[in-house]
Amino acid sequence: MGTFYQPQCVLIDTDTLNTLPDRELVSGIAEVIKCGLVRDAEFFEWLENNMYALLARDPSALAYAIKRSCENKAEVVALDEREKGIRATLNFGHTFGHAIETGVGHGLWLHGEAVATGTVMAVDMSYRLCWIDDSIVKRVHMILQKAKLPIAPPETMTVDMFKSLMAMDKKVADGVLRLVLLKGPLGNCVFTGDYDRKALDDTLHAFCKS
Ligand SMILES: [Zn+2]
Questions:
Q1: What is the distance in A from the centroid of ligand 1 to the CA of 131?
Q2: Measured in angstroms, how far is the CA atom of residue 105 from the centroid of ligand 1?
Q3: For the chain, which residues make up each domain, given as ranges?
Q4: CB-based burial of residue 88 (10 Å sphere; 0-12 exposed, 13-18 middle, 19+ buried)?
Q5: 91 CA distance to ligand 1 centroid (A)?
Q6: Each residue of 145-162: pLDDT tens digit?
Q7: Residue 23 Cα, ligand 1 centroid: separation in angstroms?
Q8: Over the stretch 161-175, which tens digit does the pLDDT of each residue have?
Q9: What is the mean pLDDT of the segment spanning 17-39?
């Protein structure tokens, strides 16, 4: 208890993916897209160009996407074994996403679907803070739509629901909600509680009807 052991080797049988329905596969692809977005611009671009091959379950495209995702994750974990700063960046889109999963009731939206919408919301907020330019916003919309992932929360989600559910996030420290946000060129992000609260409010109001 309280100890961490990293694996000596990771073996992934990609044929197992063929047992998954499309919706589950695409849900997983949301996490792969997130991975490129927060730390690997070159991989993100590869995903933009190979999304249809992934959706068609092309074996070599799937193998490459999985390998690159694992390499990214291993790098992050090696840098930060106990989930503090940099490791939290893999949670990009998850604070908004977890609020959606809890808000609509677990099981209705798949995790990756909630993460996809959470990604769009975190990108929107990063743009409102003037931390990224609008080309990134457009590219994120395009790639998620290509993957047929949802880019807006369900209509039942309200601003107040987001606020109260996000306040329960494990990344709240001393009453401050810390978020992973994009900052700078594609492939860069920060984990911070130091942002203009108005940007968060504006994002929530932009995505919720009430
Ligand atoms: Zn996740």
A1: 24
A2: 16
A3: 18-207
A4: buried
A5: 7
A6: 999 999 999 999 999 999
A7: 15
A8: 999 999 987 777 778
A9: 96
